[in-house]
Amino acid sequence: MTTEKRTRNPFIAALLSLLAPGLGQIYNGRGASGLVFLLIFVALPFLWGLTGWPRYFFGFVALVIVTIGFWLFTIIHAFIQARRIREIGLKKYQTAVVYALMIILFLGLVIFDLPRIRMNPLGVSPYKIPTSAMMPTLHQDDLLMADMKAYDGRAPKRGDLVVFEYPRDLTKSFIKRVIALEGETVEIRNKRVFIDGQPLQESYKIHEDSAVDERRDNFGPLRIPAGRCFVLGDNRDNSNDSRFWGALPLANVKGQALYIYWAKDKKRIGLMLK
Asked: Model-level pTM?
């Protein structure tokens, strides 16, 4: 029984590696190298996460450059490899069904699970600012990275920008600034915040409305229970925060904002958050 021999189309090889790194090499009959390329691509976030660099903007940029560069390498390598192959005996895995399944699996991973699976190994996760409640620190539609391991073994500090699950709807994620910690007493008088009777210096906040609203601009005093903290938006006149739904359970806190990796105002890209 003779094995069917086929030539390899360089453009098909390149396209397959574009759709799934290493798949072009598998199409070329080099299954081992194809799987190695695919495993390296999948492992890059894990390896990068060990360095701790993703916690910094330039570390994140370096990962993006390395990942795209490696992806391009697999495409070019598959193209050149296919051109050098005259004829090969087809192996059992060189079928359209196998190619389709690998493409579906890879694209499903990238498109649907990228933030959850590919970013969490880095210790960071992307987050989009949905409103103007954190102006001027964060603008609506800003894209930022949050450190998802920041509070492993420790509680947030005053001034931290925390990403958390909204207590009234756990399917929603909010970002606010920590103002008061457990055991402290917080009070707001005519827009000004007091902690244990002392005025809090807040250079980051803004007030868009000069009028005093009793429910919005006066609050407390409230002693923060154990296992909770009090959070506010920097845009005090336009923020849904602890003034309206109470102290935030620390169990809801998922991460700390690190830096902006994309913004409409390009000057703000790379801004470290504090």
From this structure: 0.77
